[in-house]
Amino acid sequence: MATAKKRILGRRLRRLEDPPLINGKGRFADDINFPHQLHMRILRSPYAHAELISVDKTEALKVPGVVDVWEYKDIADLGPIDFRADKSAEELKAFRQYCLAKDRVRYVGDPIAAVFAEDPYIAEDAVEFITINADPLPVISSADQEPGEFKPGLSSEAGLLTHSFGETERPFEDAYLVVEVDLRTGRHSGVPMETRGAIGVHNKASDVLELYGAAKIPHRNRDTLVRMLNRAPAKIHLHEGHTGGGFGIRGELYPEDVLVLLAAERLGRPVKWIEDRQEHMMAANQGRNQHHMAQMAFDKDGKILGMKDEFWHDQGAYVRTHGANVPNRTMCMLTGAYRVPSFRAKCHFRLTNKTPAATYRAPGRFESTFVRERMMDIAADRFGIDRIEIRRRNLIGADEMPFKISFDEPGLEALIFDSGDYLTLLDKALDHFQWEALETSLAKRRLNGELVGCGLGIFVEESGKGPVDGARISVDNNGDIEVLTGGASVGQGFETTMGQITAEALGADYNKITVIHGQTDRIPYGIGAHAARATVMTGSAVNITAQKVKEKALDVASEMLQMPADTLEIENSVVFVAENPSGPTVSLAEIAKRLAPGSRDLGGREPNLSAEGFHNTSESAFPYGVHFAVVKIDPDTGHVKVERFMVGYDVGCVVNQMLLEGQLVGGCVQGIGGALFEEFSYSEEGEPLAVTLADYLLPTMDCAPKVECMVTEDAPSPTNLLGLKGGGEGGINGVAAAIAGAIDNAIGKVGAVTQLPVTPQRMKQILYEIGLGE
Amino acid sequence: MEKHDIKLTINGKVYDVSVEPRRTLVDVIRDQCGQTGTHSGCEHGVCGACTVLLDGDPVRSCLMFGVQANGKEIRTVEGLAEGKNLHPLQQAFTDNHALQCGYCTPGFLMLAAGVLEKNPDISDEELVDALSSNLCRCTGYANIITAVKAAAEQMRAG
User: Fold this and answer.
1) CB < 8 Å to B141, chain A
2) Is the domain A290-463+620-769 a CATH 3.40.640.10 member?
3) Looking at this predicted complex, what is its ipTM?
4) In terms of pTM, does the model score above 0.90?
5) Mutate which of A23, A118, A274, A661 to test chain B, going by most B C-beta atoms within 10 A?
6) What are the boundaries of each domain within chain A?
7) Residue A304, SS3?
8) Contacts (Cβ under 8 Å, ≥6 apart) of A152
9) Strand runs (DSSP E) across A263-365, as ranges?
10) A701:B90 CB<8 A
């Protein structure tokens, strides 16, 4: 449960990570160089689907400065990019991607050959001299067309996945009302400002391979590389430097990461690869691309009887490291915060000839919230009741917690919503953002001819899925504190978060703390930064470890101050008698000296003021939120302006209010991008049409509203000591749902928005169809 | 490829470098002058991560060749602070949590510095218009605009 008093947790402390970043002293992937390094450049497929007959490297090898050129047959002993150890679905293995295309290319951007040269410009030149002979094949351009063949005899429908519980048909027969929708979410991605980068180094003396530019999950990727390269874990080290944004897509294991390692070993020189933006837009993981045909059944009181959904998930050309994680998360989070007695979801998990898809911030949740909340809006309209009221009638009650959702399919993990008071959050948010007054003022504006409206989305997020993470904390003789974790920092403020938890639990001086993350040679385990795990898992481990250090410190202090340990307190790294703060004190540095190896005062204690601790859990922590959007539509241009956006979110326990709001606001604006602007579109021939930032439109400052946040701590998680829940994905989850509802509201037609993003062209089309535009 | 000898002044220090004509300015600043605070985000002039001040004007250093900057005065993020004293913009960025991953930050700092030096009394609307030319993927921008306004006030007060 949450600690009784928070001294440091929750405060808006300045970030520990800022000083190098505002001074231009960051160490991002392209800032890392090694003497004598080579530069790698990838030749990528210009075909969306083709038989690869031959690759002619002769001319490229003649370019001065080129050291080597590889195609598949040069690395035929290297297997495809593997799934993470715990996710290897046997039946999906045939769909994995080789580091360089074998026999076939399956998307524009598929790596075919790698050039290694003395200079990156020369490597880029040399790629132009490689000739490929390929025979184009029919292109599968969408997941909802007839499946084709991934390879001879293997269907492009990689799996038919289901999640179900309860009686599935009866509720629909008995229903008073059935709502049906046909909805599509666009193809989006994280598009971090730093493109990917990888530098491979082979230490010949120790035979250790090192990968710089790692991010997100260095330890898990180390484990995958151990299997792929057949090396001992101690012979591969991954190093995370500064990471210019993650959002789920950066830091997964990609072909280029493996290629630089292999090349470093085989060519005997460090090998550096920095992705350019055009490559990034066709090579890094994309996501979201789903087509849902869903139904919801209601009784006469507006209570949900059942939910059905058949959807098509466009996986792109290969199944990458996550396996079928995204469609599975889509299904299991589809019922959201509502009581749904019966449920059947069926996903056509299909390969197409597009860039491979995987997790992007709130994977499966942004999509499923859009689908579910669209249906709730339509149901309210059909019943003639308020949008809020129908949600109230169906929200899971606080008295029903923990709320368990078990699926009929064998082997599917049940969800257990650990804690939550969804109605209270909704009420607080309605009050905080003055929803009623807002609706009244918008209605008045509509009477004056403005196309303005508001909408909402309610959702449950998942975070802190285990199983375990640990930490080591040590205080040196100078009083400097090292918090050693296997976590990862992708820009979210990991160091500050861990620093604040340490400062709270140990009573340490926040400014004396250094947080280590992403270094597999420093600590053998680590859960990384994915699926809002860092704060919950690593944070809990740090909390437990810091308390152990505190105990040890107080034991020594008790001896030094001649007072019982339970009468002592630590603040700002100084131990004092709780009842006599101006009395005698001893610092953590002095205690560390007393505990140094060889110290005469050690007694029977283990040397050093340090400890290691672990947080184990088999349960996730489920935060939840409410999003409200206000939009104004320009009928002439079809531009949808988000006038206001409000995020109400319960996170159990706030570590740093400023950082949490930063996550919520930043996530929200990314969601606005996905709802209104961003789309990886493709031609029928599978040609990507958005390969620059001039085609793929990220939100800019002038179209980002001031996002208002209301954060509550009403439902601390019982899964960890501090009550922590994750904050990384709560800003984006309900954005499309709320904006779609707001657009409907503005134009007076519920259910009008069926496809994301609602670009000006699509908005104009909707207006035209309802007679509001030309 | 034939190289040209050029002279760049970066944050007051002179760099005599020999460059191929096709090397972009951002690559010359980073790889040949060793000033890696300036970042390359898109290489086609959209994101603004590589913004530097060239004779006082904010420019995208990925859209220029190094040779075009011969003889020019360049200012980059490394030159903002005076010793340990942060520039008001740097201080405001950390005070207001105007950065998360920090990759776009040098570009935003230099853009804002250029804009505010030219027009210290810039209106809020003009400021948003000017800053909308750079991209940030983490913050959602609100804290960046807050920070720049706070710094502007500080800079006006001297």
Assistant:
1) 669, 699-701, 704
2) no
3) 0.98
4) yes
5) A23
6) 18-26+465-616, 32-137+195-243+250-283, 290-463+620-769
7) strand
8) none
9) 271-274, 290-298, 304-314, 343-350
10) no
